[in-house]
Amino acid sequence: MHSPTEADTCAEELRAALAAHGITLPSLGVDLPAFASRCPVRPLIALGNCNLLTAQALTAALRKGAA
Question: Higher confidence at residue 53 or residue 66?
């Protein structure tokens, strides 16, 4: 089972990687209900909602990285 600390670290690393491309997802974070479950599961990283400009920037960054 993964720890909350590991999930927090993952979320912060993702936040930093996105920021390096000028992308901010304000709702990005650990999905806390995943840790409240009776059955141990892999933690989820909630990406949240974003506006059209952010979605376009994210798409461009992913395409650039794939090239």
Answer: 53
